[in-house]
Amino acid sequence: MTKEVKTQAKIGVGLDIVWKALAKDLKSTIPSMIPNLVKDADVIEGDGGLGTVYLFNFGPDIKTMTYQKEKVSEFDESLHRIALEVIEGGHLNLGFSYYNTIFQLTATEEGETLIEVTVAYDSEIDDDTLPLKTTSSTLAFIKNLENYLVNAAS
């Protein structure tokens, strides 16, 4: 049975900049943003849109996995919504049989961006700490993204 955890955060960066970083420049954004966690990223298949497959090779701070392949399972530029499904390695080697992360971006009146994240997953192990780990790592990712984009702009 698929379970979901949701979280959200508002960051002090405009929608267009965040969308470009997450949806258009993901291959370069992630390794530049968190090089100790993601050493490099490559597009294995596709053009960045729906169906694109990314290969993320993990850096020295990730001890439990070496790589993860993710497929863009949803891509809607008009709604600023992108979903990435793990299709090989990574989370699937840690007891998950399905792991999909959906990012929904919304502009706020203050020129900031609200990022709503839904992680849908199936787990082969019964571990009540998984949702907590998932949301805390997602919030840490969003904070790193904000820091990276703010520093890139200055």
From TrEMBL:
Family (UniProt): Belongs to the BetVI family.
InterPro entries named in the record: Bet_v_I/MLP, Bet_v_I_allergen, Plant_def-hormone_signal, START-like_dom_sf
One Pfam family cited in the UniProt record for this chain: Bet_v_1
Domain of life of the source: Eukaryota
Gene3D superfamilies in UniProt: 3.30.530.20
Upper lineage: Eukaryota, Viridiplantae, Streptophyta, Embryophyta, Tracheophyta
Domain Bet v I/Major latex protein: 19-151
Name this protein carries in UniProt: Bet v I/Major latex protein domain-containing protein
Source organism of the structure: Hevea brasiliensis (Para rubber tree)
